[in-house]
Amino acid sequence: QVQLVESGGGLVQAGGSLRLSCAASGRTFSSYGMGWFRRAPGKEREFVAAINWSISNTWYADFVKGRFTISRDNAKNTAYLQMNSLKPEDTAVYYCAASSMLTRPTMGRGYDYWGQGTQVTVSS
User: Fold this and answer.
1) Is the pLDDT assigned to residue 26 strictly greater than 80?
2) Which residue, 23, 24, 76, 79, is CA-closest to 49?
């Protein structure tokens, strides 16, 4: 089992920045690929970013490229999502997820464990 706890969400004005953290406990964090997804009110969950266990590959949704950066610190068992130039349409609950295989990093069903989510609200 892997337990994931997100933090760092909050209210920010458009153009501002937030850094989300995902702290993992349980089995070896460094062996899992990590992803971030979000769900906006009235919308389906969507992929945001992913990173493999060795930090050699990252994936991003087109709508966050150049604004968001995913990273991880295996020594701290933590993954991060740095979000810059935030827009009101980025408002959502953000979830981190862990995948033992990461064969489909942009697909939610490819992940084995999920956190409870953290709310991000961007005001205009």
Assistant:
1) no
2) 79
